[in-house]
DNA sequence: CTAGGGTTAG
């Protein structure tokens, strides 16, 4: 009777001092004879938000021979703490102790589960493999929950091969196991396979839940697969009448990443239940990357009016909006307000502000901000300043920034090209040559340009100048036709963008088969303009090239087609000869 | 002997 009462007392603890009181009461009343109550209290103390892990450890240290559940409570606490890797040290101590003690202390499925949680959070793949070994030797492989935790730990550690293998070998699989693998594939940049798996669930008649929809919508966001995305979302709407806010958030993101920010807003607007801060942030970010800064800011201000506290991502989204529209004053004030509102700027916020100032020509201010930072710098800051220096043709700043980038051991070809462009703009050909020699001697990393387009329900991939596509001849012919037509419209190739020391005609050729041009040409061929007003939508892994930007403006006018390009950082929507970015990018 | 473990959004 007393035990049940004590258990209820533990559950009712909502402050740390209450836990402490109970703990001393337990000690004096001798309740710690009961290992059950003891571990309940430990667990409460170690993991609840008002608990105190170090206090839990203190209690633990006074137990002469801790049982399984005492260990589990501590491991669980560390797994959820800011130092998840300590959970693994505790796990090892437990293994040592359990080998020399009674059956009351042995690693069980929960021990493994909590430790794996820590592996997933601390990104510890070696430990994950070790726990896997324990799970199989102890005969826990039939435990579906545990296997799903293991699967998740593998995929969070980037080991999708092991995750997939485990999934295939699992004797019992349920929705969560499928979901874990689908999510893993999405975050491992294998969204195509994630969608295939989702479709397999559909075919095999496996019940899907809201987590499945979120993961599958995430796959569509990555791929820009709007048709599949809409199918999934409408299926969800028909299946669940009570609207799940997380799925709606995923849908907002999906529409926005597929290029349809107005549809994203429709979803946002039609949410009848409670919006979460993520809902607002997703919408702000959507408008921001589409260059609709004023609508982004409107939502950002409305968020505060709705009594929601903006978090770090809210500020990041607002700053992103300013950055892409060149709203220096508003952006600066947002940045300065952050800390006052209890949100410390992180690397991404600094990255945004440096880009905002730099692009707007305030190179010195951008430089001063970087120098004022007390955290370890990310090379992206200097790369951003280098990019701004290139836009504004500032040799001194470009040299400073590129030296910093190189010092940090980054050797991307794009950074060399930027520096070279600044020299070229000043006619400093000797320096241009030196940069090019540098590129040859250093091992410069070149990330190949890659563009995707969805046509007739499948995704087509293009690399620069590739001839892999079965219709490559037709595509190249289409490009010739486009070049001919847009020249009549006044197009001149932006050959200044090509670094190599070659003739003008060769330079033009180097530009004209860029991956995004191949994709757009294919889109013009394949996507029927009569069929709904479907725009030609392309996704590129890098930033869009300046020449392609000019070409697409011409195409949008001459072919009377809307083109939407999702670049690494933002959207460009070409319509009637101009781009939504207003050439500010 | 009694509870506790898995998958989800920006």
Structural class: mainly alpha
Strand order of the largest sheet: 2-1-3-4-5-6
**Rg measurement, Å:** 28 Å
Mean of residue pLDDT values: 90
Helix content: 55-70%
Number of strands: 6
Polypeptide structure, described:
The protein has 585 residues and is mainly alpha-helical. Among the domains are: 1-61, no CATH class; 368-446; 450-579, no CATH class. Helices cover 65% and strands 5% of the residues. The chain has helices at residues 2-12, 16-29, 35-47, 53-61, 68-79, 85-99, 109-122, 125-137, 144-156, 160-169, 175-187, 191-203, 210-223, 226-239, 245-257, 261-270, 277-289, 293-305, 312-325, 328-340, 347-359, 363-372, 379-391, 395-407, 413-425, 429-441, 472-488, 504-512, 515-526, 546-558, and strands spanning 450-455, 458-463, 536-540, 563-566, 571-575, 578-579. α30 links the parallel β3 (536-540) and β4 (563-566). α17 runs antiparallel to α18 (293-305). The protein is globular, with a radius of gyration of 28 Å. The N and C termini lie far apart (71 Å). It binds one DNA strand of 10 nucleotides through α1, α3, α5, α7 and α9. Residues 490-585 form the DYW domain.
Short précis:
The protein is mainly α and 585 residues long.
Which secondary structure elements does this structure contain, and how are they paired or packed?
Layout: H1 2-12, H2 16-29, H3 35-47, H4 53-61, H5 68-79, H6 85-99, H7 109-122, H8 125-137, H9 144-156, H10 160-169, H11 175-187, H12 191-203, H13 210-223, H14 226-239, H15 245-257, H16 261-270, H17 277-289, H18 293-305, H19 312-325, H20 328-340, H21 347-359, H22 363-372, H23 379-391, H24 395-407, H25 413-425, H26 429-441, E1 450-455, E2 458-463, H27 472-488, H28 504-512, H29 515-526, E3 536-540, H30 546-558, E4 563-566, E5 571-575, E6 578-579
Parallel strand pairs: 3-4
Antiparallel strand pairs: 1-2, 1-3, 4-5, 5-6
The protein binds one DNA strand of 10 nucleotides through helix 1, helix 3, helix 5, helix 7 and helix 9.
């Amino acid at each position: 009777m007393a035990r049940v009462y004590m258990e209820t007392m533990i559950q009712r603890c909502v402050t740390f001092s209450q836990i402490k009181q109970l703990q001393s009461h337990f000690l004096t009343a001798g309740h710690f004879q009961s290992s059950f109550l003891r571990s309940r209290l430990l667990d409460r103390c170690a993991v609840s938000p008002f608990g105190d892990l170090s206090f839990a450890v203190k209690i633990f240290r006074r137990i002469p021979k801790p049982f399984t559940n005492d260990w589990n409570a501590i491991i669980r606490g560390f797994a959820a703490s800011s130092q998840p890797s300590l959970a693994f040290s505790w796990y090892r101590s437990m293994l040592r102790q359990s080998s020399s003690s009674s059956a009351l202390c042995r690693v069980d499925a929960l021990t493994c589960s909590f430790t794996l949680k820590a592996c997933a959070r601390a990104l510890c793949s070696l430990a994950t493999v070790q726990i896997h070994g324990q799970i199989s030797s102890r005969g826990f492989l039939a435990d579906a929950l545990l296997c799903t935790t293991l699967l998740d730990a593998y995929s969070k550690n980037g080991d999708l091969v092991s995750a997939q293998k485990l999934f295939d070998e699992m004797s019992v699989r349920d929705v969560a196991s499928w979901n874990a693998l689908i999510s893993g594939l999405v975050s491992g940049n294998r969204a195509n396979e994630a969608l295939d798996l989702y479709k397999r669930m559909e075919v095999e008649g496996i019940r899907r839940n809201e987590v499945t929809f979120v993961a599958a919508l995430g796959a569509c966001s990555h791929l820009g697969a709007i048709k599949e995305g809409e199918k999934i979302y409408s299926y969800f709407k028909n299946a669940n009448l009570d609207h799940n806010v997380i799925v709606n958030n995923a849908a907002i993101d999906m529409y926005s990443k597929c290029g349809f920010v107005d549809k994203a807003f429709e979803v946002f607007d039609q949410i009848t239940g409670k919006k979460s801060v993520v809902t607002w942030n997703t919408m702000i970010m959507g408008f921001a990357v589409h260059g609709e800064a004023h609508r982004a800011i409107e939502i950002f201000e409305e968020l505060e009016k709705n009594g929601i506290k903006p978090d770090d991502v809210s500020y990041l989204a607002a700053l992103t909006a300013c950055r892409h529209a060149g709203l220096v004053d508003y952006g600066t004030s947002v940045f300065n307000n952050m800390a006052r509102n209890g949100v410390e700027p992180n690397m991404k916020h600094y990255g945004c502000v440096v880009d905002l100032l730099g692009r707007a020509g305030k190179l010195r201010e951008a430089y001063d901000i970087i120098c004022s930072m007390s955290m370890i710098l990310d090379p992206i800051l200097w790369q951003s300043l280098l990019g701004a220096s290139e836009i504004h043709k500032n040799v001194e700043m470009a040299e400073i920034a590129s030296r910093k980038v190189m010092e940090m051991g980054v050797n991307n070809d794009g950074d060399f090209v930027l520096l070279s462009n600044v020299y070229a703009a000043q006619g400093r050909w000797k320096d241009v040559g030196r940069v090019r020699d540098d590129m040859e001697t250093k091992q410069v990393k070149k990330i190949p340009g890659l563009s995707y387009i969805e046509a007739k329900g499948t995704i087509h991939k293009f690399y620069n100048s590739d001839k892999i596509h079965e219709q490559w001849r037709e595509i190249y012919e289409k490009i010739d036709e486009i070049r001919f037509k847009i020249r009549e419209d006044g197009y001149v190739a932006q050959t200044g963008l090509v670094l190599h020391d070659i003739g003008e005609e060769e330079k033009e050729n180097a530009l004209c088969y860029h991956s995004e041009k191949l994709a757009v040409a294919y889109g013009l061929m394949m996507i029927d303009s009569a069929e709904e007003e479907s725009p030609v939508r392309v996704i590129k892994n890098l930033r869009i090239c300046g020449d392609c930007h000019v070409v697409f403006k011409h195409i949008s006018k001459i072919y009377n087609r809307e083109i939407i390009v999702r670049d690494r950082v933002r959207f460009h929507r070409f319509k009637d000869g101009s781009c939504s970015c207003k050439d500010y990018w």
